[in-house]
Amino acid sequence: MASNMSAIGFVAKTADDFGRIQLQAAHNGEAVPVADGYYIRWLLGNGPEVWVQANAQKEMVWLNPHFRGATSVRISLISHILRPNVPLDGAFYGVINPDPDNLEKGTVDLVFDLPDDALHRDVLDQLPVVRQVQLAAFAQRLDAFADEAAYMQAQEGGIAYAVESLVASGMYVQAGELPEARVLLSGRVLAAELLVNPATGLLFQWARVRTLGGEVDVVADTAVVHGLIKVGGIISGAFWMSGKIEPLGEDE
């Protein structure tokens, strides 16, 4: 069964699998202290990252994956979302490419989870605030098309999305539920490669994709990929969105 962890080459089907990944991270990673506990940051060297969350009693309670790529988009962070029962977990609602005169309007809105949310709580009293964010889209389903014509033909008879589109599907929730970091995304493939997870030796798919609002890194378990991902082609599917807020530059 595919998961967000298998999208970067980990076997993560059972609680024992997740426990083993936590122990690997504890052995190979670096502790990052924060209020109420600490993260264990395990950077595997070619993009995959694992962020384990531990409480003040040094109990490992959660983990999140991320993929570190070279893409970056400008996002106005509008509101913060705390995930219940996981103090170091969180997300932001924001808009990509915000209007300078109204930071709550922009090209497209979305929700993204952060693997290192507690490191960015200092911005909460500044919202809305504009930051550069590196987004990684973890595929839950991914269809690949040779070109724009093949993509448009596949949509005949259904809801037609533009070649470069992003819909924050995770915002459509029942009353009282928190928004989720889920999107429907399509875009043009600018680069693509099968990568190897150095810890497991397993392959996973990576692509740099231009979608509505900018470029994102896409990762996928090969089991959820239908078709051949190639430069110049189109990809489309459902994704979980993880984001890392970039450090401020000297001119910001």
Quick tags:
252 residues; mainly beta; 5-stranded mixed barrel; 2 helices; globular
Structure, described:
With 252 residues, the chain is mainly beta. The protein contains two helices and 14 strands. Strands 8-12-11-10-14 form a five-stranded mixed β-barrel. A four-stranded antiparallel β-sheet has the order 1-2-3-4, covered by helices on one side. Strand 11 and strand 12 form a beta hairpin. It is globular, with a radius of gyration of 18 Å.
Give a concise summary:
This protein is mainly beta and 252 residues long. It has two helices and 14 strands; from the N terminus they run αββββββββαββββββ.
Q: What level of helicity do the residues show?
A: under 10%
Q: If you compute it from the alpha carbons, what radius of gyration comes out, rounded to the nearest whole angstrom?
A: 18 Å
Distance from N terminus to C terminus (CA atoms, Å) equals: 43 Å
The coarse silhouette is globular
Mind summarizing the main beta sheet? Answer: 5 strands, mixed, barrel
The structure class reads mainly beta
Counted beta strands? 14
Strand order of the largest sheet: 8-12-11-10-14
Number of helices: 2
Oligomer: single chain
Mean pLDDT value: 95
Strand content: over 45%
Low-confidence stretches: none
**Topology as a string of helices (H) and strands (E):** HEEEEEEEEHEEEEEE
